[in-house]
Design goal:
Number of helices: 3
Low-confidence stretches: none
Helix content: 55-70%
Mean pLDDT: 93
Order of helices and strands: HHH
Largest sheet: none
């Protein structure tokens, strides 16, 4: 008589649903954006001498431009192209 060996299953393993994956992706994106904005605004404050008022004004402009993108007036690709043509700044994806 041969005994069948049961496949060992990790007891800590939990199957993930698509909702779990989307939630994890959203959290990762939020963390990445928060890190990028934190770095950007710290450089503006520490290296460029931006005051709280300057940072708030800059954030307001960022929100306005983001709103324009959300409404379809322009795209991020448009912004990248303008920066490349007018300033020689090439932001690669």
């Amino acid at each position: 008589m041969s005994k069948k060996r049961k496949k060992k299953v990790n007891p800590r393993r939990q199957p993930a649903t698509m909702a779990d994956v989307k939630r994890a992706k959203g959290k990762a994106e939020d963390r990445a954006l928060t890190a990028a904005w934190s770095i950007f605004f710290t450089v503006l404050r520490d290296k460029e001498g931006y005051s709280l008022e300057d940072l708030r004004r800059t954030w307001g402009e960022v929100e306005d431009l983001s709103d324009s993108i959300a409404k379809g007036y322009c795209t991020v690709a448009d912004l990248r192209e303008i920066l490349k043509l007018e300033e020689g700044v090439n932001l690669k994806v």
